[in-house]
TrEMBL record:
A GO term for molecular function: phosphate transmembrane transporter activity
Protein name: Phosphate transport system permease protein PstA
Pfam families: BPD_transp_1
Encoding gene (name): pstA
Domain ABC transmembrane type-1 span(s) in chain numbering: 144-350
Keywords, alphabetical: Cell membrane, Membrane, Phosphate transport, Transmembrane, Transmembrane helix, Transport
High-level lineage: Bacteria, Bacillati, Actinomycetota, Actinomycetes, Streptosporangiales
Similarity annotation: Belongs to the binding-protein-dependent transport system permease family. CysTW subfamily.
Predominant cellular place of this UniProt entry's protein: membrane
InterPro entries for this protein: MetI-like, MetI-like_sf, Phosphate_PstA, Phosphate_transprt_permease
Length: 363
């Protein structure tokens, strides 16, 4: 007569054996980590208040250290060593994330609080033409026009050159020419902005003579800084496109240039757009090259990149801070907030463009 074994009892015995072996242990309830953090924060705050040394940064540091030690010990006792190590690393990761967010949030909050004092419709719609530094009037419209015009012209120069260079490096480049281009792109990535401005000033003096500062010169100086960033970011995005897509296109008889246009670029368009926006964000706040090339004394609205000096938001902020005074500082903070808003709008526009041109994956 055959003997049968109850699978339920076997499974329970196996589970008990595994637990006794230490591979699986108890589990801390979900409410324990946040409750432990709150309790430790209260305890540390009480100790600091009693010692008369209470301040927010010290409270955050001591609470973080105490929480990391406490959650690790509790996990080691209730769970097991592997889970305790996991919780310790998780606490360290969250701590590093919080530390990275502190300066960003502090910066945005400071600019927001100080910039909202003067930022309004009037400030955004008038220029500084006819306004003296001591007058409680004037706005930043001419600087917005200059920033958009100069940055737009720089993007018009940089994006085609950078994208074509990246396509060459990924799809066509071979041998020493590719190595030389990669080397010079890496070198250009680390060029200080003031050097780019001086280069364009020297070039402009050779071509048009001294004293010819205008928005076009500023755009060219920004393009010198922008091109290597576009090349590097687009190159990495193009390399992420699977070779299987290219090979499938070639198997259908599609030529290489059309494969790049119809398959490779649409697949990488989201990453390329992000890279271009990073390059724009890299140059839109540059001050030194624009002071040298586009000028720093323009107060009127100028839409012509090739005629006369052109103000930009970074240079406007610098000039207002340099003059000093409460009114000028208010204008500088409001202009800084305006610059952040312009960058945010550009990023939103880029996201919409990438979503519109990205390949549709739905069937």
């Amino acid at each position: 007569m055959a003997t049968t074994t109850d699978p339920t009892s076997t499974g329970a015995a196996g589970g008990a054996h595994l637990r006794n072996a230490g591979l699986f242990g108890g589990t801390l309830p979900r409410w324990v980590p946040p409750a432990l953090l709150v309790v430790l924060a209260g305890a540390v705050a009480g100790v600091l208040l009693a010692a008369g040394a209470f301040n927010a940064p010290l409270l955050a540091v001591l609470t973080t250290v105490a929480y990391a030690v406490a959650i690790t010990v509790a996990s080691a006792i209730v769970e097991n060593r592997r889970r305790a190590t996991d919780r310790l690393v998780t606490a360290v990761v969250y701590t590093c994330f919080a530390l990275a967010m502190v300066p960003l949030v502090s910066l945005l909050w400071t600019v927001l609080v100080n910039g909202l004092q003067r930022l309004d419709g009037y400030f955004l719609s008038v220029s500084m033409n006819g306004v003296t530094p001591s007058m409680d009037a004037g706005g930043v419209y001419h600087a917005i026009v200059g920033t958009i015009s100069i940055t737009g012209f720089a993007a018009l120069i940089s994006i085609p050159i950078g994208l074509m260079t990246a396509i060459y490096l990924v799809e066509y480049g071979r041998g020493r020419l590719k190595q030389a281009i990669t080397f010079f792109v890496d070198v250009m990535t680390g060029i200080p902005s003031i050097v780019a401005g001086l280069f364009v000033v020297a070039l402009w003096m050779l071509l048009f003579g001294p004293g010819n500062t205008n928005g076009a010169a500023g755009a060219i100086s920004l393009s010198v800084l922008m091109i290597p960033v576009v090349v590097r970011s687009c190159e990495e995005m193009l390399r992420l496109v699977p070779n299987e897509l290219r090979e499938a296109s070639y198997a259908l008889g599609v030529p290489k240039w059309l494969t790049i246009v119809k398959v490779v670029l649409p697949t990488a368009i989201a990453g390329i757009t992000t890279g271009v926006m990073l390059a724009l964000a890299r140059v839109i706040g540059e001050t030194a090259p624009l002071i040298l090339t586009a000028g720093s004394s323009a107060v009127a609205i100028n839409w012509n990149l090739f005629d006369g000096q052109m103000m930009s938001l970074p240079v406007f902020i610098y000039s207002q801070v340099r003059m000093g005074g409460a009114i000028n500082y208010e204008r500088a903070w409001a202009a800084a907030l305006t610059l952040i808003l312009v960058v945010m709008l550009l990023f939103l526009l880029a996201r919409l463009v990438s979503r519109f041109f990205a390949p549709k994956l739905g069937r």
